[in-house]
Amino acid sequence: MRALKRWILFKYIPVLLFLGLQPQKIHALPTSPDTLKTFVQQQINVSLEIANLNPDSAMNTASKAFEIASQNNYEESKAELLRIMGLIWYYRGDYARALEYFLQSYNLYRIIDNPKGEASALNNISVVYRNQGYTNKALEMDLQILAMRQSLGDSTKIAASLNNVAVAYKDLNEATKALQYYHEAVSTSLKCRNPESLDLYYNNLGSLHLNQNQPDSAYYYFQKSIQISKPLNHKQMLANSYTYLGNYFMQKKRYDNAIASYRTGLKLAKEIGIIYEIEWTAEQLHAAYAMKGDYQNAYQMHVLYKQMADSAKNQATIQKITQIETSLRYSKEREFEQVMQTKKELENQLELNKQKQARNIAGIAGLALLLITGITLRSYHRKNRDNKLLREQTKEITLQNEEIQSQRDNIEALNKTKDKFFAIIAHDLKNPLGSLFKLSGMMHSDFEQMQPETTKSYLLHLNHAAEKAFILLDNLLQWSTLQLGSIQVNPKPFNLLDVMRDNTELLSEFAAQKKIEIQFQTCTECVAYADPILINTVIRNLLTNSLKFTPENGTVSLKVDLKSNFWVISVTDNGIGISSEDQKQLFDMAKQTKNIGYSKEKGTGLGLVLCKEFTELNGGTIWLESELGKGSTFFVSVPVWENKSGLI
C-alpha cells in the first residue's frame, strides 16, 4: 500500500509547484460581465495551483469563485470548480467526499456537453478507485478515458492516459503490457514536444525495469527523469527518482552511493512535506545504514520512518472505511447511466415509430397513382446506380491491388536491407568484442608474469577494441532512434570551429597511432544555425572515416567556406579513394559495399547513412569528390546563423 500511496499524487494528477503565488483577496468584484468571468477564471487557476500546498486557502478561494459562478450561470466554471474542490478533499485525505465532488463535476460536464472536462473528472474518479485498491475498475476507466482523449486529439492528455493505463497494468503484474503503454506515452509526449510529464514517464519506466531485475536499464531511465525534472523544479519527482536510484545502488551493493542518493531524496521530500515520500525514503535509508553497520543513523531513520507511518494511519483507516461506500456509489452510478441510456433509446425508438407511421399513411394516399411510374423509374435508377457502383468498386479494387503490391515491394526491400544490416553489424561487432575477450583472457591468465610494458600494450589494444565497439554501438543506437522517429532537432547558433577542434582533440590519439597529421582552417565568425549535437556526430563520423582510410604518415584536413547562406565544411584525406560506382551507393544502406582501410579497419557504412540523415534533418546536404588512389573529400552544408539581434 505504501508504494501505491507514493505514486498516487503524480501518476494521475501532476503536482504543480507554487512559488510565491498567494490566493487573491476579494475586495471589490468586477462589474463588467467579461471582466467578472475573467476574474473567476483567475480564481480557478489560483485554487488549482495551491490545492496540494495550501488546501485551506485553496478551498476558500474555490468556494467564493463557485458562488460567483453559480450566481452568473457560468456552468463550465462551476464544473471545473467542483473538480478542484474534489482535489482539495483528496489532498486532505477525505476520499469519500472527494469522490462526491468528482461525480458532481463529471455529471455537470456531461450536461453541458464538454467531453474534455468529462475526461478530466473521470480521470480523478479513477484515481480514487485506484487508491481504494480497485485496480481492475480503475483500469476499465483508464481505457475509457484514453478512448475519449484520442477522439478529442489532445496529444498531451493522450500521453497522460497512456501512462495511467501502463500504471494499472503494472499494479496487475502485467509487465509486458505496462512496458508497451509506457513507451507509447513517451513517444506521444516527444511528438507533441511537451516535456512537462516526461520525467514521470521515464521514472515509471525505471521503476518497472527495477522490479523486473533490470537495474542498468532502470538507472538509464532514472537519469533521464532527473535531467528533465531539475530545470522544471519538479521536486517530488526528483525525490522519488533519487530514492529509486538508491535502490539501484543497493542492488549493486554500492552502499555509500545508495546512502547519498537516499539522503538527497529525503531532503527534497522534507522540503515538499509529503508524508509517504518521507516514510518511504527513511525506510530505505534505515536498511542502507544497517548494511553499512552504521546502527546509530539506522536507528534515527527507523524512528523517522515510524513517525511518518503513524501519521499515515488515519488516512489508511479512512480508505478502508470508505471502500464499501465507494464501491456502491460506483455500481449505482453505472446502473443509473444504463437506465438513462435505455430510457433514451426507447424514447428515440418511439419517435422513429411515430415518424414511420406518418410517412406510411402519406405514402399510401399516393401509391395507387404512382405505382407503375415509380416501379419503372426505380428499376431504371437502380440499374444505373448498380453500374456506377460496380465501376467504382472495380476502380477501388484496382487501386488497392496497386497499393498492396507497392507495400509488398517496400517490405521486401526493407527486409533485404535489414538482413544485410544485421549481418554487417554482427560481423563488425565480432572483431572488437573478440579482441576484448582474447586480450582480457590473456591478461587474466598471465597477469602475474606480465611486465609493465606488456600490460600497458595490452591495455592500449583493449582500449582500441572497446573504442571501436563503442563507436559502432553509438551509431547503431542513433540509427535505431532515427528509425523510430524519436530524434528531436533542436537548432541553435554555435561556432563550427569549436566542433572541429573538439573532434580533432577526440581523435588525436587515433591519428597519432597511424602518424597522420590533422589540419584544419581556423575561422572567426563561422556561426551556424543547426542542432550542434547532430552536426558534431556528422563531423566525428567523417573525420573517423578519413583517418581510417588514410595511410600512415598521411594528412587529413578540415576546412570551412561560406557559400550563399550555408557554411560548407570539407573533410579531405589522401587515402585510398572511392570508385565512381561505389560513390553512387555510398549513402544507401541496401546497396553499400564494405571497404577496408590501410590498417585493415572495416566500416559498416552506417556512419555515412547517419551523416546524410542528420545533415538533411538540419536543412543541409552532403556530397563527395573522390578518385581511386588519390583520396576523398566529403562536403557538408550547414545553414548560416543570421544574427539579427547583435547578441553574437
Overview of the molecule:
This protein has helices at 2-11, 33-49, 55-71, 75-92, 95-111, 115-131, 135-152, 155-171, 175-191, 198-211, 215-232, 235-251, 255-272, 275-292, 295-446, 452-483, 496-506, 508-513, 532-548, 580-585, 606-617, and strands spanning 492-495, 517-520, 527-530, 555-563, 566-573, 622-627, 631-639. The protein is of the alpha+beta class and 648 residues long. It folds into five domains: 1-24 and 31-133, Serine Threonine Protein Phosphatase 5, Tetratricopeptide repeat (Alpha Horseshoe), CATH 1.25.40; 143-233, Serine Threonine Protein Phosphatase 5, Tetratricopeptide repeat (Alpha Horseshoe), CATH 1.25.40.10; 253-312; 392-473, Helix Hairpins (Orthogonal Bundle), CATH 1.10.287; 487-639, 2-Layer Sandwich (Heat Shock Protein 90), CATH 3.30.565. It has a five-stranded mixed sheet. Strands 1-3 form a two-stranded antiparallel sheet. Strand 4 (555-563) and strand 5 form a beta hairpin. The longest helix is centred in the middle third of the chain and has 152 residues, at 295-446. It is extended. The model is unreliable at 1-27 and 596-602 (pLDDT under 50).
Gist of the model:
The chain has 648 residues and is α+β, with helices and mostly antiparallel strands. It is 72% helix and 7% strand. A hairpin with a 3-residue loop joins strand 6 and strand 7 (631-639).
